[in-house]
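The methods section describes the discrete structure representation at length, but only in general terms. An entry of this sort, consisting of the sequence and the corresponding backbone structure tokens, reads as follows.
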Amino acid sequence: MLSLTNKRILLGVTGGIAAYKCAELTRLFIKAGAEVRVAMTKAATEFITPLTMQALSGNRVHLDLLDTEAEAAMGHIELARWADLVLIAPATADFIARMTHGQADDILSTLVLATSAPVAVAPAMNQGMWSDVATQSNLSALRERHYHIFGPDTGEQACGDVGPGRMMEPEQLLQECAGLFETGHLAGLKFVITGGPTREALDPVRFISNHSSGKMAYALAAEAAVAGAQVILVSGPVHLPTPNGVTRIDVESAIEMLQATLDNIQAADAFIGVAAVADYRPQQFSAEKIKKSSDQIELSLVKNPDIISEIAKLKQRPLVVGFAAETNNIVQNGREKLKNKKLDLLFANNATETFDSDTISVTVISPDAEDELPTANKNVVARKLLQLISERLNNRQ
């Protein structure tokens, strides 16, 4: 069975008779492990009710561009960042034309413009409308913008005509959507990824740590595994499930993380250091709980090993990729880390905006360029970052 485990699919329904198929499509997506949210045009509600789509998806259906119930009334932006994939099904000739010309006068057309996730279109219309030169021109423009066009099928239509224009069946659309994620472009490669925080013990009950949730590392591990890589995830303490197909090694301290990384780095093609490793650890560990005996206490700290630098020093080193979570001068500080630590790539982000967030914006820094990726959910960003890493690996070979 096809898997869309943990994928976030935004289903956009427009006003065509094929809208009735979206009920079964939603059911199939959820059965395959996806989370589904639905946005509908006003015309779509004439063919299938929002209540039906809400009951099947388990989420409130989005109908209005200016939604006062959404946080800061910017629901379309939140939806655009949330999605791993936007699927417009059915996509009428009218909506395809509006997409082509960048109109943004309802919730669905607006979020298509706002999202950085892949957008797929499942056309559904009369065979004459499908064959018209204007429709074909619009579809060519969407393909040039890297939109995915699924279908249409050929057959008997609701109006009585026979020809191309029928929306693909839900089972076919499920396969097409799953195929967008199962790329296999990392097949045969080994990735070692560190993620989460480390904990540096003071005594049996206290430790020094940070706010890292591990979500970015886990997104990278999940997407690398889907793309066919062998993935070893060395994880500090987090409350996240292990992604499918990923080997997870749990550690606590920076020293433990370094050792686990060195134990597994042999024959690795790429190392991605995402973990928020504590820079310092207590010089001494108290075997008993430190008692509250005075108004002040002094702690002596010593520097932890820099895991990314240690991997970069290896004689047989993999491609070394770092993350830099900064609070100011993000690009400047990131470029200094890239140079000082002798990294191949570095992904810099604003630390204060990403703790426990499902979205992230990243600046990609290489020795000769910088490229800023727009804010999107971490799985979407992870796929883009892995594509850049894949290109670097191909260039090395």
Observations:
- DSSP finds 13 helices and 19 strands in the chain.
- The two ends are 35 Å apart (CA to CA).
- The chain has a mean pLDDT of 90.
- The CA atoms of residues 124 and 167 lie 5 Å apart.
